[in-house]
Design a protein that fits this description.
alpha+beta; Rossmann fold; SH3 type barrels; 3 domains; nine-stranded antiparallel sheet; five-stranded parallel sheet; 7 helices; globular; tRNA-uridine 2-sulfurtransferase activity; transferase; cytoplasm; MnmA-like_C
């Protein structure tokens, strides 16, 4: 196959590209430039996509003897990932930018350009498996549960899965990948993994958002509607948050309070006890299927609502363009805007963005239902 290897400058994508070459494919390395200010997206192990990362990727490509290019996707990244991130927070939701990047950049923009240029597939260093099933290509969890990245790949469609290549899916540990990189003479063998949000390398999401959308004082209320504190912008809070709440009135029982809801229209943050975070149902209209499309009706599945969360057995319904999920046991602290990925065993069925949640603990009418 003719393969485009997406090379981030990290150890995983380097070894993935090397394995693609060893497998006999015609490989071209591509580094995606996602920021016009190339030196600003990495601080230690935070962030990515710097000039340093591009040079690390180029050195690997030189060792492998493959062509290497840097493609500028910064404008599309800004529109589809960064601007979307800001808009979601302004709407009181908590987005996952890694999902949007995979959906719109790595497996849409990159793959689209690759197919136009005559390539057959995009290769990445993600830890996930591809299995050819009776209904086409299937996406499955990786062999190493601790490194499994099938959750952030749940946005891939059947067409995209047909043109995707994950050489690391069967590797039992990250330590083996690093050892292989060292044997191959890659300077990235001991490079730390990047984490957190790549375009907020200092990790200060609240400060970054305040700079982008400004601050506006508002009220923090409890579930009865009583004012218990103030804030400088509801967009800086997310469901389940405990730290950073400026509460002037202690809870009657003296226990900590958590964010239960963000109401952007009134710039209000609702707080309450931890048990009020229990969520009995989630639903959403923005969905996709990873392979075979799910027919309308009820089906059993497992649901994962965060990248490193445990899957939860559940019943799901797909009716009239809406996916609804009721877990066997309530979720803990689900925020609208998060992504729910549905599994059948190790196989990814599909995903949806959570638009609505139903609390397992009744909410007083003075506050309103979580949504």
């Amino acid at each position: 196959m003719r393969i485009l290897a997406a090379m981030s400058g990290g150890v995983d994508s380097a070894v993935a590209a090397a394995r693609a070459v060893e497998a006999g494919h015609e490989v071209v390395g591509v580094h995606l430039a996602l920021s016009r200010a190339g030196g600003t997206l990495r601080t230690g192990s935070r962030g990515c996509c710097t000039i340093e990362d591009a040079m690390d990727a180029r050195r690997v490509a030189d060792i492998l003897g493959i062509p290497f290019y840097v493609w500028d996707f910064s404008e599309r990244f800004r529109q589809d990932v960064v601007d979307d991130f800001i808009a979601e927070y302004q709407a009181g939701r908590t987005p996952n930018p890694c999902m949007r990047c995979n959906q719109h950049i790595k497996f849409a923009a990159l793959l689209e350009r690759g197919l136009e240029l005559g390539y057959d597939a995009v290769c990445t260093g993600h830890y996930a498996k591809l299995v050819d099933g009776p209904d086409g290509r299937e996406l499955h969890r990786a062999s190493e549960a601790a490194k499994d990245q099938s959750y952030v790949l749940g946005v891939l469609t059947a067409e995209q899965l047909a043109h995707t290549y994950f050489p690391l899916g069967d590797t039992p540990s990250k330590a083996l990948v690093r050892a292989e990189a060292e044997r191959r003479g890659f300077s990235v063998a001991k490079k730390p993994d990047s984490y957190d949000i790549c375009f907020i390398p200092d990790g200060d999401t609240r400060g970054w958002l305040a700079d982008k959308v400004g601050e506006a004082d508002g009220e923090v209320v409890d579930r009865s509607g009583a004012v218990v504190g103030t804030h400088h912008g509801a967009h800086a809070y997310t469901v389940g948050q405990r730290r950073g709440l400026q509460l002037g009135v202690p809870a009657p029982d003296g226990k900590p309070r958590f964010v239960l809801e963000v109401q952007p229209v009134t710039n209000t943050v609702v707080v309450g006890p931890k048990e009020a975070l229990a969520t009995a149902e989630i639903a959403g209209e923005r969905f996709s299927w990873a392979g075979r499309a799910q027919s309308e009706g009820e089906f059993a599945c497992e649901v994962q609502i965060r990248a490193h969360a445990d899957p939860v057995p559940a019943q799901a319904w797909f009716v009239d363009g809406t996916v609804r999920v009721r877990p066997e046991h309530p979720f803990d602290g689900v925020a609208p805007g998060q992504t729910a990925v549905l599994y059948e065993g190790t196989r990814v069925i599909g995903q949806f963005t959570i638009d609505r949640t139903v609390s397992a603990v009744p909410v007083p009418e003075s506050v309103g239902a979580r949504s």
